[in-house]
Amino acid sequence: MAKNSTTNHNDQKQRTSNEIRDMEYAVETFSLTKIFSDWWGRDKVYAVDDLNLQVQHNEVFGLLGPNGSGKTTTLKLLLGLLHPTKGKALCLGGDGADPKISARIGFMPEESYLYKYLNARETLDFYGRLFSLPPKVRKMRIEALLDMVGLKAVANRPVGTFSKGMARRIGLAQALINDPDLLILDEPTTGLDPIGTRQIKDLIIQLAKRGKTVLLCSHLLADVEDVCDRIAILYGGKIQSEGKVKDLLLQTNKREITTGYISDTVVEKIKQIVQSEQADCVVTSPMDKLETFFIKTVAAAQQRGLPTSGVVSDATTQISSFLTSQTTKESILDKLVSAPTSQEAPTEPPKTKQVAPVDTSEPTPDEQLLSKLTEQAKSATSKPVVREQEAKTKPVETKADQQEQIKKSILDRLTGRSTPKNRRREKTGKSQGDSSDA
Amino acid sequence: MKIAIVFIILLLVLLPVMIVSMPGDGSLKGRLQTFVSYGLSLTSLLLCLLTIVVSIYSLTNDIKQRQIYTVITKPVRRFQLLSGKLLGVILLDVALLLLFSAIIYNITIYTPKFFNAGKAELTSLNNEFFTARAGLTPAEVDVTQEVLDIYNKLEETGQLLPGSSRKELIELLTSRKQLEKRAAAPGHELVWEFNNVKPIDPNQSLFIRFKYDVSINPPDLQVFSRWIVGDDRQVKYGTKIETPIYTFDRKDLIRTFHEIEVPADAVAPDGYLAVGFFNVPLNNTVVIFPPGDKLAVLYKADSFTANFLRAVLLILLRLIFLACLGILAATFLSFPVAILFCLVIFFTGTISGFCLESFDFMSENISGVYSYTLRPLIKLLPQFDKFNPTKFLVPARLLSWPLLAKAAGLMLCIKALLLLLLALLIFSFKEIAKVIV
After folding, report:
1. Given A274, B118, B137, B412, which is the most exposed site by the fewest CB atoms within 10 A?
2. In sequence order, what DSSP letters do the residues of A366-412 get, joined into one string?
């Protein structure tokens, strides 16, 4: 019986991977239109208007737009939660409401709507059962996911008592329980602290590297900018602008040079050279993103062992140790992805294998930063083994040393040795203030 | 669901209080009858309300709180979601019904031990309460031919009443003739024949339940009578007497029910039994057996336990029907409206017999329109009053498996299934997400 189902699963996987090759797009809509009409049937609002959207496989696609521009409605149409008035929406080449298709989709709604009397583990178990995952795989994935989102310590608490950020983490975990090919995220980072946001963003990047397709909608521009390959900006239910993030944002008429520390005389020389080209030149020291600064500060506080109110802080530590350290994260994701693979080796898409080595050899700047962070964060985890290792490898001075560094960097910023060059910082500040969306 | 806990506690407290506080007519039998009647009715009512609330709440709340977003986008078909909800409610119902019916049953069974009842009282309790008696009523005598003969005779002789149609006259003659068949003048007798009398134990008793009506009230409102019960074919055809024939000389009050206890061995092996009534000339009045409360032969056909079990199953049928109704209402109505809708149907269902009768009566003049419009709709309502378990348990009447099957067929296989299909249809085309722009 079990064997039979395995082979079935195998066949299905084989077939679906063939289908994927045949289909050009992971998500495609054909003049998708959704009109909300009033009680008398008169057209009221064009929520989505003649939308033609194409998301390629293995792409992180961001839907942007102000409140009420039709982002969430588009996602709901894709998932079959709403019926289109006109047009068609295809997910992975089929109807998103079809169980065969939805078995390969992970969806995280704009808020985590959870059954509040179930605890975290039961919640994930419930969703795992909906995918009729075999008990072994289910159990393994649940543990891995709980670990990944950092809620293992509170896995037996009813989710009704969770803070918004913790609920979001469970929401993310449930979206990943079936190891989806297509991940649809509605406002993935709202309600999360900057560390959680960072982790989700890293996770999205990691998943994309593993050959998954991610479609997310958000109005937190910084998040979108960091993770998306392509974006579309919606307004009034229509695409106003679409393309690769790099192409859209690249200022071709300007150049930026980043160097190590150089003396003022060299700066003057460079200025002269630039002026001889008849171009303006501004020299400043680059600024950290507020996010990076925040993470540093929190990590420092954790290192000092300051008391915080409970679980979120615990979780943060665990997550950061998790997501930022390349190897640990790999193993978790590997576990998740390879859950069926243990039974069916050949079905693993080759993409992942190709990507993985590149991945480790060339970590992105963010990851470098975060891996630095991990070292600090690790020391704050409750595991005594880790603490021992830290103690061995690092002399006691490091603590004070780092604190000094941080203090210095704070002072640097406070004394205004920087100019308002950092566009990102402005954006982040602005968009984080405005976090509600329809 | 706090409401469930409130209901459960309410029942747990009320049931034991009821047996102590409600003496009924004073006798132990009356006390038990009152307890079973009120206990089961209360359990049924509260569980019905609970079922309605839970089935509606579980779906509407999922939609309102949007937990359904993450469930329905998983590989779950919509009918699976609905049947899951339904199954959950039914399981809850089964568990609660088991609990409460077990409590009621045990209290009922053990009460006689606490109330030091006399031997006579215990015997009557066993015969008239802790039993499940099947009742047989004699078939209406077919008088059509006789009536036609009389009519033709009257027509020939020209004695027909002027100004009346043929139909009216026939009706009049029929009712007169039927009355004749139910009446015994002084010195005359009436014989009823019963087939398929099958008492489970020939050593026990069977009962003849009757009520007299009279043409002229006797001075003390009592009627003298002689009843002969047994297999009269032995006498008629002069065969060997194998089963005893019993005779009872009695004096009974008119217009109230009486029961004659007859040893069950009076029944012939093939289930035949004749009951004869002789109107003693002393009475000087015509004794009539009213058509509404027919004479009946009652015999123990099953145990109280089995009857009680079927009564509980009857309640379960009702609960399952209501669960389907609740699910249907939840697919297209919001919580409070759905509750109201279900309650209206529930309460009309409990008086559906009355509704049918009164509408039948009121719409005699527009019967054509009525019978094709309103009547089928009322018929579609559940008939909770027709299949009311206390109606059987209190007079210890047999609630037979075929009757239960009929109730199941009508209530579940037809009506509940229709509701469920309708719910499925609505739900599969429903837009789950709320309209937000």
Report:
1. B118
2. HHHHHHHHHHHHHHHSS-HHHHHHHHHHS-THHHHHHHHHHHHHHHH
Dihedral sign, Cα of residue A51, residue A56, residue A57, residue A63: negative
In the predicted structure, residue B400 carries a pLDDT above the cut 50: yes
User: Does ipTM exceed 0.90?
Assistant: no
User: CA–CA separation, A80 vs A76, rounded Å?
Assistant: 6
Strand ranges in A176-308 using DSSP code E only, listed in sequence order = 182-186, 213-217, 230-235, 238-244
Concatenating the DSSP letter of every residue in B217-239 gives --TTSEEEEEEEEE-THHHHTT-
Q: What are the residues of chain B with a beta carbon less than 8 Å away from any beta carbon of chain A?
A: 65-77, 429, 431-433, 435-437
Distance from CA of A259 to the nearest CA of B (A): 48
Query: What value does the mean pLDDT take over residues B358-369?
Result: 72
Whether the pLDDT of residue A12 is over 70: the answer is no
Q: If we measure between CA atoms, which residue out of A130, A113, A247, A252 comes closest to residue A191?
A: A113
* Strands A230-235 vs A238-244: parallel, antiparallel or unpaired: antiparallel
Facing residue for B73 by CB, picked from A72, A100, A105: A105
What global pTM score does this model have?
Answer: 0.73
The Cα–Cα gap between B266 and B243 comes to 6
Report d(CA B27, CA B30) in Å as an integer: 5
CA triple B150-B156-B159, angle to 5 deg: 75
Contact list, B74 vs chain A (CB under 8 Å): 102-103, 127, 130-131, 178
Distances (CA, A) of B162 to B40, B151, B153, B166: 56, 13, 15, 10
